[in-house]
Specification:
Length: about 350
């Protein structure tokens, strides 16, 4: 059951007493004062609050006593739980309206905090579930199938995992998120789980037009979500390594390159590491690869003269020991970029 901390209760008391000219006490579910305009009373038991908690009704004290002062004490009820009491010191007829205002304020604050904590627990549970699903190998248990159904996933169906980076959820993208179960397993990454025979391209086309910074990749349609996810990640690694112009890569279209990146083929050149201090040369190499080694097409995309391109390719050869103008050496540079993106 939710309980106000002393800090929260005191903050509410201090704020409300700026506008209400009476002492305010907030008691917890045991009748102990946890916030008060009189700090010396914090931690003591309020008898009127104890009675209000026991009866569930407002208790008015019309005479000062040894352990309580004149005033009103009204239970704070959230759902069907009595979680505390609001007390205001003064003539009951005068302070009763203020008591209602403070009680409503505190109730709203408690409900808001409870809702936020519930949401945080659900977000945490959702994140834990998708992490488990992305790593799970072997047949799905009935327990996993039931939990997946909560998130709209039918594990009896084959699934295509769609991986997005640079994606910003907003009102325009809401229809896309409603078309398939979506998750954000890590910062900057969104996953869509497309089930059945649905194709990714029709879903992505309007998104890529509205958000040109989005980059996407997809795995195959697989029985295990983890398999399709691994393929989507491999395709995205190809994108990170080679920076092709296409905004969307399918694993089946880059399967050889993805496999090449996983292959441990010595010796490693360390091309990306050697070129990282020369971003223009690294961009030039990627464009040259993407344009199939065409000098004219590469120079046009880079908006430089062919002689400048020749110079840059020569510098790449000097720094890496591999000349991108030679087919086999270009192939080694491609492998090195892919391997370093893992």
């Amino acid at each position: 059951m939710f309980q106000l901390s002393e800090k929260q209760a005191q903050e509410i008391v201090d704020k409300m007493m700026r506008d209400i000219p009476y002492n305010i006490n907030i008691m917890n579910d045991r009748g102990v004062i946890v916030g008060s305009g009189r700090p010396d009373r914090v931690g003591t038991v309020h008898e009127g609050a104890v009675r209000a908690l026991a009866t569930g009704r407002m208790v008015e004290v019309r005479e000062d006593g040894r352990f309580e002062k004149k005033g009103t004490n009204e239970p704070i009820v959230i759902g069907d739980k009595r979680v505390g009491v609001i007390g205001i010191t003064g003539e009951p007829d005068e302070v009763r309206p203020f008591c209602n205002i403070v009680r409503t304020t505190v109730s709203l604050l408690i409900e808001q905090k409870t809702a936020l904590e519930t949401l945080a627990r659900e977000v945490s549970r959702r994140a834990a579930f998708i992490r488990m699903l992305l790593e799970h190998r072997g047949p799905y248990t009935q327990k996993i199938r039931k939990e997946a159904a909560v998130y709209g996933i039918d594990l009896a169906l084959h699934t295509t995992v769609l991986l997005l980076t640079g994606f910003e959820p907003n009102e325009e993208s809401a229809p896309l998120l409603l078309r398939a179960p979506s998750f954000a397993p890590e910062s900057g990454v969104h996953l869509l789980l497309l089930q059945g025979d649905g194709a990714a391209e029709p879903l992505l086309e309007p998104l890529l037009k509205r958000q040109p910074r989005v980059r996407a990749s997809s795995g195959r349609r697989e029985a295990l979500v983890a398999d399709s996810y691994a393929q989507a990640r491999a395709a995205m690694n190809v994108r990170l390594a080679l920076r092709p112009s296409a905004s969307f890569l399918r694993f089946e279209d880059v399967e050889f390159l993805a496999g090449l990146g996983q292959a441990d083929l010595p010796p490693r050149i360390g091309a990306a590491a050697r070129l990282e201090d020369y971003p223009d040369l690294l961009d030039t190499l990627r464009v040259f690869i993407g344009r199939d080694g065409s000098m004219s097409a590469s120079a046009a995309e880079l908006n430089i003269h062919r002689n400048t391109l020749q110079y840059r390719l020569g510098r790449i050869a000097e720094l890496t020991g591999k000349d991108p103008r030679r087919l086999l050496e270009l192939f080694q540079l491609v492998h090195d970029l892919l391997a370093e993106s893992r």
